[in-house]
Design a protein that fits this description.
Among the domains are: about 1-200, Ribonuclease H-like superfamily/Ribonuclease H (Nucleotidyltransferase, domain 5, 2-Layer Sandwich), CATH 3.30.420.10; about 210-215 and about 225-320, 2-Layer Sandwich (Alpha-Beta Plaits); about 320-425, RRM (RNA recognition motif) domain (Alpha-Beta Plaits); about 455-545, RRM (RNA recognition motif) domain (Alpha-Beta Plaits, 2-Layer Sandwich), CATH 3.30.70. The chain is about 30% helix and about 20% strand. The strands form 6 sheets. Strands 20-21-17-19-18-26-25-24 form an 8-stranded antiparallel beta sheet. A 6-stranded mixed beta sheet has the order 3-2-1-4-5-6, sandwiched between helices. Strands 8-9-7-11-10 form a 5-stranded antiparallel beta sheet, sandwiched between helices. The longest helix has 19 residues, at about 75-95. The protein is globular, with a radius of gyration of 31 Å. It starts with a strand and ends with a strand. This is Epithelial splicing regulatory protein 2. It is found in: Nucleus.
Amino acid sequence: SLVVLFGATAGAYGAKLGSDERELILLVWQVVDLPGKKVGSLHKSLVKADNLELSDQCREVSGLTPEGLGKAEPLDRVLQQFIQLVSSDLKVLGRSSYTLCSDGQLLIRQVLHPETSKKNFLLSDCFYSFYDLRKEFHTCYPSSAAVKDQTIKTMAEYLGLGTDETEEDFGVWQVKTMVAIIFSMLSESCNHIFTEPETVKYKYETGPCLILLFFFFFLFLCSSKSETVDNETVIRARGLPWQSSDQDIARFFKGLNIAKGGVALCLNAQGRRNGEALVRFVNSEQRDLALERHKHHMGSRYIEVYKATGEEFLKIAGGTSNEVAQFLSKENQVIIRMRGLPFTATQEDVLGFLGPECPVTGGKEGLLFVKYPDGRPTGDAFVLFSCEEYAQNALKKHKEILGKRYIELFRSTAAEVQQVVLNRYMSTPLIPTLPTPIIPVIPPPYTIATGSIRDCVRLRGLPYTAGIDDILEFMGDATADIKPHGVHMVLNQQGRPSGDAFIQMKSADKAFMVAQKCHKKMMKDRYVEVFQCSGEEMNFVLMGGTLNRSGLSPPPCKLPCLSPPAYAAFQTAAVIPAEAALYQPQALLPAARTPQASAAAPPTVTYYPAQAAQLYMNYTAYYPSPPVSPTTVGYIAAPPGAVAAAATATHTPILPQPGALVRMQGLPYNTGMKEILSFFQGYQYAPDDYNGLIQLSDQARSVLQAPKEWVCL
């Protein structure tokens, strides 16, 4: 038997059903006895959604109203009634088993499965197998329109059936017409047989996928990446919570069939998750449905979904070694990643830390320590558990102490194991997510605003956890009026958020409107004050000054008595990249100049990232404005000739490339060079002869060589 099923949501209809995350509001169904060509009763049930607001298209097409839906049952009860009524109709027809039949894939895959997953209740087994009437119709009538162009109405017109939808209630006509189409397909002229239903996977299968095993084999034989993954089956998901696992991503795509081991979490050069993942589906049809979930939500965050290539997937998920392959050979295991292990930790130490309540699969064989190419431990390890219960017990030990260090534990994936281990063995990551060192560029295209025009706004009282996305959401429609690279987060002298931010608007009028509209508007659990200000006032605060009711207090670098010694490698407009330094030491700030010195000053060579977070002086982090992603990191490269010309014109030593400065605070007073080099073990630092290329005054050199703080190249 078939159960012909039709449904509608409170939002989009037709080809866009389910693409807007709107809830189900209508189910209509009827049992069809195929051998006897009989039908059961037709049932129509309204569904009470959490949000009763209906789109204009829904109101027009369905004729439903929020008042009517408010009296309906919620989805879980409607589905229980569905199972009971179908069973009752089957008994009347003398049948016992059935398979669903719907108009296309969307109702089952894009509506029912995602919605029930978000509402945390399980669907009956009958919803994991169904017939797609459009595909069955095209198989029976090959000369009809393509599957993607079929609708109930076009199929009825092809068969010469009545197509006046106004004769019946919305949903009733659709089910009756689908039943008539099925009976036509069962006629002697066609004698169609329903044999191969569509299936929905019950759960995501972890472990290395088959295509990667072939990939490794070809690499061994040919030493080239001759094996490929179909480009039409891979997507890139961006904006994921950093703690999300492969199972969380599979749940986000619930209803769609992901290939075995098809979730690859992307990592940055430090081996940490960067909020992106590559997902490989079983075919292009599933991939196209996944693209329709662009900007759907995972918790409170929306997830961006884009097309990706098979080559990108292989680069992320394809790295392996014999040790990793042996570790991952045990299937259906839960993988946990441990981070922050003492470098002296042994397998016995880790097993003792986990304890008997979470036994590791295979004992020591279920542990994989990540090491650098020279064999030194990185402090990371992966652990296998045979079931979810043991893994959950292990996760409860998150941030417990082993030795003198607290240990972080996270869910992980086979692709992450491959990627982390191979990245440690290689000199460069598979897909670098951090750029190459900064190259001098002349001149910087983005500068801090100046002037007395009040075209800026100041946000005060931001939550300390607020980021660029929170501010843009707080601004609402006004984000369209923000200047490029016009959002400036203010940090305190410890490099932490101060609760303030400045935003450069396109005009003073726009700034005034934002201040009026957003003042004391809530962000998370705090209200935020919004004031209109000028570029000059913003500049003073960003450079370390204060702005209050008493007026402006200039930053320390503007006070002659506090001006630090000159530092030749960085001039006034110089910018240190956020990836290279949390903040500059005072010894790196520019000296106060006399007018004569300023007049004779050579052109400035500026270091800056073009689309990345930046830090000016000690106080401010700069983020790109939309549409540039806040997580995007990129640099503008200057041609070598421009660098040489700048060096010749200025007669000023330039930091050798590559090279970047970091500042260390809180060192023990007896710290020596050996301890510092040991602290940076595993990282490349500049050779000693770099020191001779930086001209320092005696005062500056004394600061740099003080035992409390070090500045390292």
